[in-house]
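Here we describe the complex-level prediction in full. Unlike the single-chain runs in Section 2.1, the two entities below were treated as one system.
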Amino acid sequence: MTSLVDLSLLEMKAALRAGELSSRELTLACLEQIDRLEPRIHAFLTLKPEKALTQADAADRSLNAWRKEPDRPLQSLLGIPIAVKDVICVADVRCTCGSRILENFVPPYNATVVERLLAAGVVILGKTNTDEFAMGSSTENSAYGATHNPWDFDRVPGGSSGGSAAAVASRLVPAALGTDTGGSVRQPASFCNVTGIKPTYGRVSRFGLVAYGSSLDVVGAFARSAAEVALLFTLMAGHDPLDATTVDLPVPEVRLSQPAGHDFPELAMQGLRIGVPQEYFVSGIQPEVDAAVRQAIAILESLGAEVRPISLPHTEYALPVYYLIAPAEASANLARYDGIRYGSRQPADELWDVFRGTRGEKFGPEVKRRIMLGTYALSAGYYDAYYGQAQKVRTLIKRDFESAFQHVDVIAAPVAPTTAFRIGEHADDPLSMYLEDVFTLPANLAGVPGLAFTVGFDSRGLPVGMQLMGSHFREDILFQVAHTFQQVTDWHLQRPPL
Amino acid sequence: MILTLEEVEHIAELARLRLTETEKERYREQLSAILDYAARLQDLDTAGIPPTSSVLPARSVLRPDEPRPGLSLEKLLGNAPEARDAQFRVPLILE
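The structure predicted for the assembly as a whole is:
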């Protein structure tokens, strides 16, 4: 018998509406799954079972009332349990950002994305583990312990949204929110076999997201299929008066009932031009990753897409550009943690010793490393050589994408050079960890959307992810292509052996 | 090694981070390795290339300045390590 937690988000939605299932039953099933697996996965930092059940009961009352008057509108995700990455504020629920410096911080308001999903009826089960302030590629940098990959407990789930990806993969929740500053949705999606969207910069409000790299940060979502992620995306996206960087453009309705609007799957991709960037298929990449992504591109071609080789010539510079710009922005953003207004304080007699002591004691090693790096890149005498030059090269990277999208509709590439690596594999060698991000950073620097999903498994049984990147605000094409792919393949349906 | 120990101490002071001697030495090595890697950016000729600080086009984001309800004082001070008389409390800064 299929357990309730194995239902997909869309199946849950249908069963709730039909009255075959209550939100309370569903929420309890998720909580039982969490009880069973959480000791081995450690996906959550905070669980709110009582609060969730109160929300579930309210949802059940609305569902019962609606069934008596089915002509009335009903909230899109009414009664569906989800999890939220612990860098996104949920009112009156502790938000640690994976850091000791915020171990007692309770935000007094909801992030806009949380507000919108609550308005759509979701039940929030808890807050998921993350690298401290979203700085990392493995979720090992959490001050509260690493999250484990459900496909192999000795391996990382990716990061920084590793808790959310692991929670969705191991059926603790059908969907979860993440954030992507340099790949933090796409890479954990790839490592855990879930589908994850990094929207266009400016598409989704950052209000209530704890800032890391403000010109790069974007809130995204995880679920088990492109169709489900598309639904979450349309509910989250849109202009927000509380975030001046959100764009006032209509959010396209993503229609997925027919593969790309065609009746014949073999013609579904007719007219679609897929760019394959040579810089993402280089020596050093795990051969099984290269092979699986090439096979996936061949599948899209067999569905009628036209595959074109392209070049994004400045790809190799994305890593040094990112690791100057993101730390520079982080060093400014994290100046607010001074032990005065919120967070914990290291007491001292002198005010400046409060600052130095609080920050020195309560920030973890990677956060301090990036603050130091960013402070240096912005300091007098080095600004032009490091930060200024990085901003100019960022322009070149952005132009690479603009040129490419004059000739292709989407770009297909591996998410990461390898499948999930071992916990501890990159300990004490930050540069080797940064190199894991080499294929995800360019989309953030250019601000373009990216969608990651599984296109195979390696010989160890670990998922291999592919990402589709699109031009600004064309998430709809990414969802259609991935949805069509998932109609003719079943890798995304594979469950970890738990 | 790009950075000296004195430079590491200077950066830490700018960033208001108290570091142990072990941390200073570790960051000196690690930051030097990262900056050495980043030096490849100098290979590119960027004369005439404008910097990108945001991928979005610049536009006015001004809105009417209308009063709206905000958070209560109690909520705003609720996360402070120390608060008294509706104010954040800090160590003595003036004798």
